Amino acid sequence: MTKLQKIIVGLSGGVDSAVAAQQLIEQGYQVEGLFMKNWEDDDTSTACTSEADHQDARQVADTLGIPLHHANFAANYREEVFAHCLQEFRAGRTPNPDILCNQRIKFRAFLHHAERLGADAVATGHYARIGHGPNGYTLERATDRRKDQTYFLYTLGQAQLAKALFPLADLLKTEVRKLADQAGFANHDKPDSTGICFIGPRDFRSFLGRYIDFSPGPMVTLTGEVIGEHVGLPFYTIGQRRGLDLGGRSGHAAAPWYVVDKDLTHNRLIVTQGHDHPALLSQWLTAIDLQWVDGAGPTTSLRCSARLRHGQNDAPALLEPMEAGRWCITFDNAQRAVAPGQSVVIYNGEQCLGGGIIDTRNRLDEETTRAFSQS
């Protein structure tokens, strides 16, 4: 890319996107900012948070001397991200809105809007690297391994990577905060964002309960013993410990309880004790909706590593194609708390190859064979 190209940076009000813009200016690009509003409801606290973020983005833009555009993608977010997540919660699965948001808002709606504003490319404050290989653009890990966000970006393909820049690829988070302080950004020590992408930190149960129907039901052990009551299956995920409110139970050890599974047919939440109980461990999983960075993906079995959640170490595994676009991932060592609906992301060394949605998984406490259902 030449240094005369126009880049629009998604300024969120956070420190990462602020330094991303500053780095591009130093590299000689023509830079403008864009603040995205992606959520609207009647919660005044959220409106206040959004306005505060907008003011932080404005301060950064003013400090850098660049224009700041504003775009409202709330309708896109509700239709393309939030509605899908609600559907997944109703089905008993655990979706990842951050991944959908990157795919459908930041690198689709935002990208198209930026192009209409005359941008040659967009940039964000993600910690990731865009490289080049024999099959085109590659998505690779950032220098800061703790902050690396390739897990959230695996849905990006060649068209998106050709129009994207990640200026923080070589920076550590500590360096980013130092640069922000030196630049005079008021948000240099602002905490990282938490909660649902663009919706922010909320009481999860009360928020989700506004949009989906749920019913309390029995909380049972693996043997079917009723030991408590859950507040609604959508509010729990595999491996969860907090929020079970079980405490000590007569006839059971004084040890923490964990969610093992959900029985949607009988509205039962299945729990057990022991952080690494076999019921919480899976040797394999099947994945659907696979998306590959190079647009094609492997055609045969592949030794790889896989990540089940952001911040987790990769696990060595064998990736094998199945019928109807499904894939099986068999781990060298059993993995804990594999949650259907979440994403499994595939790596080959430093390179993120792609990923998909976890559909099924085995439990080591059950009699399981490698004869998977092809339906």
From TrEMBL:
GO biological process: tRNA wobble position uridine thiolation
Keyword Mitochondrion: no
Gene3D superfamilies attached to this UniProt entry: Adenine nucleotide alpha hydrolases-like domains (2.30.30.280), HUPs (3.40.50.620), Translation factors (2.40.30.10)
Site (described: Interaction with tRNA): 126, 342
Listed EC numbers: 2.8.1.13
Keywords carried by this UniProt record: ATP-binding, Cytoplasm, Disulfide bond, Nucleotide-binding, RNA-binding, Transferase, tRNA processing, tRNA-binding
Top-level taxon of the source organism: Bacteria
tRNA-specific 2-thiouridylase MnmA-like central domain: residues covered: 206-272
Name of one Pfam family that matches: tRNA_Me_trans
Catalytic activity: S-sulfanyl-L-cysteinyl-[protein] + uridine(34) in tRNA + AH2 + ATP = 2-thiouridine(34) in tRNA + L-cysteinyl-[protein] + A + AMP + diphosphate + H(+)
Domain tRNA-specific 2-thiouridylase MnmA-like C-terminal: 283-358
Region (Interaction with target base in tRNA): 96-98
Interaction with tRNA, as annotated region: 147-149
NCBIfam families linked: PRK00143.1 (NF001138), trmU (TIGR00420)
Its biological purpose: Catalyzes the 2-thiolation of uridine at the wobble position (U34) of tRNA, leading to the formation of s(2)U34.
Family: Belongs to the MnmA/TRMU family.
Alphabetical list of PANTHER family matching this protein: MITOCHONDRIAL TRNA-SPECIFIC 2-THIOURIDYLASE 1, TRNA 5-METHYLAMINOMETHYL-2-THIOURIDYLATE -METHYLTRANSFERASE
Name recorded for this polypeptide: tRNA-specific 2-thiouridylase MnmA
Organism of provenance: Spiribacter salilacus
Gene from which the chain derives: mnmA
